[in-house]
Amino acid sequence: MTDIVSLGEPMVEFNSEAIGGPRSGSLFSAGFGGDSSNFAVAASRLGGRVGYLTRVGADPFGAMLQQLWHDEGIDASHVVIDERHPTGLYFILRHGAMTEFQYRRSGSAAAHLTPTDIPVGWIEQAKLLHVTGITQAISPTAQDTVFEAIERARSADTTVTYDPNIRPALWPLHTARALARYTIPLCDVVLPNLDEGRMLTGYEEPRAITQELLSFGARMVVLKMGGSGAVVATADNYIPVPTREVVAQDPTGAGDTFDAGFAVALVEGRSAAEAARFAAAAASRVVQGLGAVSPIPRRREADDIYAELSAALT
Fold this sequence. Notes:
Blueprint: E1 4-7, E2 11-18, E3 26-33, H1 35-45, E4 50-53, E5 55-57, H2 60-71, E6 80-82, E7 88-95, E8 98-104, E9 128-132, H3 133-138, H4 140-155, E10 159-163, H5 173-183, E11 189-190, H6 194-201, H7 206-215, E12 220-224, E13 230-233, E14 238-241, H8 254-267, H9 272-286, H10 299-312
Parallel strand pairs: 1-4, 1-9, 2-7, 5-6, 9-10, 10-11, 11-12
Antiparallel strand pairs: 2-3, 7-8, 12-13, 13-14
Helix pairs in contact: 1-8, 6-7, 8-9, 9-10
């Protein structure tokens, strides 16, 4: 049985370290990315029973992703193999302290996701559905799929978590802002990072951001603040959630792992504050490595970090 469902756009990642500067060539290592797939992998590694829905191309990259989900214990039995459109790719170029992302995702198989791809009863039997703004941004049909998934979840009292994951490169900010504001009241938990909170509300300070998002109709806001931890806010509570200090190398995928840790802990029955602390512990491990997927911790490691963090706070 699947307790946690994610849907959206997976991609194959090519991660480079420049040799002698950006003009002299790079060595690339293959990996995986895409916020919804990162979430699924992290939720599974952290102990959740996870299902994932997308479309992948009938190409070697789609096969690589299918193998990833199999290896990670994710139910990908409903993934659609698209014979006409390719799997999305992205490249991480590193020039000294600078990191550049280059995407090859236009017209990808995942962008052709439609509401009819959602299996009947699949979301309704789950305990939690996770959706993101990137899935909404990649195409109108993918956007429709997100809303169909939310509607099915709400009809069955399945908890809905939403990461706005605003990417101005995908669509104009005013469009992203308008759609996020429409989506927020439909969901149970909204999980923006601090920059996204500022873009959505126009406010700078965390308390003002969370209060404004609650005024949009959010039931709960979990504001991710990187090395400063997080905040869990509802109409009645404002709870800071600290994290541990680490030397960060790469933030890629940390927000997705936070979302996953929060979802897993919530499904297990922990309070929102405890879930956010567990999520922050897991995410703190991710920023210490490179790439979106490789540094995601397994449950035992995340539990150890959580216990260390909890002990430091007592």
